[in-house]
From TrEMBL:
<dbReference type="GO" id="GO:0005886">
    <property type="term" value="C:plasma membrane"/>
</dbReference>
<dbReference type="InterPro" id="IPR036097">
    <property type="entry name" value="HisK_dim/P_sf"/>
</dbReference>
<dbReference type="Pfam" id="PF00512">
    <property type="entry name" value="HisKA"/>
</dbReference>
<keyword id="KW-1133">Transmembrane helix</keyword>
<feature type="transmembrane region" description="Helical">
    <location>
        <begin position="144"/>
        <end position="168"/>
    </location>
</feature>
<keyword id="KW-0902">Two-component regulatory system</keyword>
<feature type="transmembrane region" description="Helical">
    <location>
        <begin position="22"/>
        <end position="44"/>
    </location>
</feature>
<keyword id="KW-0812">Transmembrane</keyword>
<keyword id="KW-0418">Kinase</keyword>
<dbReference type="InterPro" id="IPR003660">
    <property type="entry name" value="HAMP_dom"/>
</dbReference>
<dbReference type="Pfam" id="PF00672">
    <property type="entry name" value="HAMP"/>
</dbReference>
<dbReference type="InterPro" id="IPR050428">
    <property type="entry name" value="TCS_sensor_his_kinase"/>
</dbReference>
<dbReference type="InterPro" id="IPR003661">
    <property type="entry name" value="HisK_dim/P_dom"/>
</dbReference>
<protein>
    <recommendedName>
        <fullName>histidine kinase</fullName>
        <ecNumber>2.7.13.3</ecNumber>
    </recommendedName>
</protein>
<feature type="domain" description="HAMP">
    <location>
        <begin position="169"/>
        <end position="222"/>
    </location>
</feature>
<keyword id="KW-0808">Transferase</keyword>
<keyword id="KW-0597">Phosphoprotein</keyword>
Amino acid sequence: MAWVIACWQMTMRKHMSFRARVMLMAIGMGLTMSLVFAAAAIFITERYEHVLVGALLQDEANAWAERLFEDPNARLPSSELQRAYLRRPGETNPLPTHLAGLTPGVHEDHSSSSDGLHVGVFDTPAGRIYLEMDLREIEALERYLLHILFAVIFAGALLSSLLGWWLARSATRPLRRLAGEVERLDTAPHITDLAAHHPRDELGRVALAIDSYQRRLVEAEEVERAFFADASHELRTPVAVVRGALELLEEDVQAQPRLQAPMRRLRRGVDEVSTLLEALLRLARRQLAEREVMDVDAWAHQFLTTLVQGCAAPVTVSIEGRAGTLPLPLRDAELILSSLLRPLLAKPIGDILTGVLSPQGIELHFHTVQEDVPRLTSPIRNMASRSDRNLGTSLIGRLAKAHGWQVDMLDEKSLSIRWPHPAPTTQVN
């Protein structure tokens, strides 16, 4: 049993799977029980043989002692299976070599030439009687029993391994079911009741702990939402004050051309801060804009026209292609497009903004009247050619990714946005 415990401790240190550990433990227990059974069977067999042969030889010696008392010249048996020798008191007649020196009692000769030979030495009134009994057939049966016990040990180990595999599978089935339920949980925290579907045992305690953890997550999210609601109010208020003051300043500098360029830069900065603040709060509160089924062609033309109105140089909006009616998150789409286009609008890189629409997305290109609209074979033809703006880790990039959008800066004058169609419901991670 000690070596079974040692093997178990070794398997625990080897970071084996639970099923493998149970199987090894079952094999160890099966081997131990089989070995104990085999040892007990051999011990009982040998002991039974010794007691039985001793009683037979003792009874035979008493019978020959009585017969020799009645007839001192009686002839002792001398056959292949049984032989007897008598040494009367005072006689020195020679005995077979294997009998010389034997003391009274029952002896077994384990030599290879006389395997199965049992000798009983008894002192009687007629003298010392030596009785030999050849039990070779019994010894052959003992060897056959030994082979059977080896088969029992092997079968015990095999059966115990199968039983261990079945027990491990049965024991881990509820755990695997619980793991599947946890894997199917939504990424957004919500109240669960996993413990109701499991018994009140150790596995039930695990399910109860998961339910308790989910409740704490929900409570933490509620506290977080309350915090962001307060932060939203506190952050938007100074931005609104700055925006109002900026509008007053813009009216005052209408007659001062040298101040109009700085005012436009200030306006872009305030707009960018507002956009990033809105994106930050949406991501932090995990409250994405709901998708609305709308005419994407009309919306894109109207939104882009409004967006370019504040440019220093006039920019004409041109829409090509058709996207049709699609479900898009209107507010977040405007946030993403305005944030991406605002830096491009601040540069004199073209007087025409062309939007190429399709049900899969939109391409936006700045170019001059003399330039043709770039025709790209695919908006994602080269994923490695993205700009160094690293949109994937920016707030706008994260917001676009939360909706399943793919944003690519194709070059310094062009960008591409691809949205899923039909758009799936997404979660913010």
